[in-house]
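User: Show me an example of a complex going from sequences to structure tokens.

Assistant: Sure. Here are the input components:
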Amino acid sequence: MKIKILGCYAATPRTITNPTSQVLEIKNHMFLIDCGEGTQVQLRKHKIKFSRIEHVFISHLHGDHFFGLIGLISTFMLLGREKDLHIYGPKGIKEAILLLLKLGNAYTSYNLYFHELTSNESEIVFEDNKVRVSTIPLKHRVYTNGYLFEEKITERPLNIATILNYDIDKLYYNKIKMGGDITLEDGRVIANTELTFDPPLPNSYAFCSDTVYTTTILPIIKNVKVLYHESTFLEKEAHLAEKTMHTTAKQAANIAKLANAETLLLGHYSTRYGDINLFQKEAQEIFENVLLGDDGAAFEF
Amino acid sequence: MKIKILGCYAATPRTITNPTSQVLEIKNHMFLIDCGEGTQVQLRKHKIKFSRIEHVFISHLHGDHFFGLIGLISTFMLLGREKDLHIYGPKGIKEAILLLLKLGNAYTSYNLYFHELTSNESEIVFEDNKVRVSTIPLKHRVYTNGYLFEEKITERPLNIATILNYDIDKLYYNKIKMGGDITLEDGRVIANTELTFDPPLPNSYAFCSDTVYTTTILPIIKNVKVLYHESTFLEKEAHLAEKTMHTTAKQAANIAKLANAETLLLGHYSTRYGDINLFQKEAQEIFENVLLGDDGAAFEF
């Protein structure tokens, strides 16, 4: 699982920082998460092939998460894309994109599928045999969802030595891989846990931005491997965080701790701060394993 | 009169080039012309004060001329702008901007005035006592206007030596400045041309992009000081120019020549060309005084 941060600063694009967008590479998918103005240029800069992007997940319709989407869709069209593109985002996103395309008398050469969200409960929005993507309802000034990306556990590795010891026929191997117990000819039942190893913990990634501090997301992101949680402010600006419905680094760390996350990845910093290391320092007082997102940063898990 | 090119490449933003946007400084106005994605970052990069921009002229609603506008409007809002902003552009621009603001639950702290255009005849869209802005109806794949910016001739410089010679009272100076003749006490009429000098030729700037080659614009831009005319292609791609309703460098030079322009400024180059000097070379075979627009280039007239 690889995460590439294309932009992770709040509010407005600047010459030195970009608004929110990131790419998650998981089980051969290249998911684009949020798409602030300038995302297509960041994709080019970091040499991410446009054609690998088939699913775009938009958290909410504020500019710093969304205003680059229409340009990306148009560029895909100008480059002659043929592959389908799926857009997941709040209700209204379809109307906006279609209106902008219509005004430019520009229709896409490829199929554009909109998956509009309205629910305040977590729901599965994408699933194949290897990955599942669910929404994480967040609390912000407009309707907002984070997204949880989970690898599925496909099969349990066989403990061949034990299996051979019981002289189990190969015909049963698939059943064992899928977690089944085995009844021997003499009637003894051998538990699956004896015949297999625990599979490696599947990768999972929770993207949570923008949101005020809320523990309602904990049941959804419990035990997540990597939690990206916004930290727009430091604790000394907690009043601004509350007022603008954002989070402090300390609050993000609290969420990571309560969710029993393995790693916390910070981002969505207010541009008022000169040194983003302060966010890491503040979060680490609560939760040790904190990584700092920054434009262009790449992480592999 | 100063022109700053923020971006002048066709189609899509790239890491090294920007879509169309430019700033025209004329008679204390700072007019923004077109606003492709990334324009706000280009404005920051070139240290153009956001607050000086009060009028934005959009030629047409293709992304490379328009997709940066909503981000600019939003950023103005986030920065607490209070000054009015006037937007001139094709009908539909208001619906698009208001929808995007509504979806983000984001209303501007300042007054936003839309001047929507539908006419196929040239019309005055802005006028004060020093400058007049008129549309230049162009021919492109969607409804498109260029814009003609003209300084007004405000007054004729007095020829003080002659005036004193005729012993004309100071009370008449304003009348003379405005072009009036003077009748002396002995009945002699002194022509204004004897009492004043010709004022310097007023600056004028015609922005013409995007358009197929069309001579219908000639009466509007006749004798213009600086003609910015798109030249998306070189003549060897004339078939593409026609197909996509763009212009070649040679055609742009033809327009400059027929319009009796003083200077031709080229731009809106297709990104297929590695060397934009070829555009200048091709145009200069027809029209000598050719300047090359390029991102970040500044011109003063």
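The lines above are the inputs; the final block is the predicted structure for all two components together. The radius of gyration of chain B is 22 Å.
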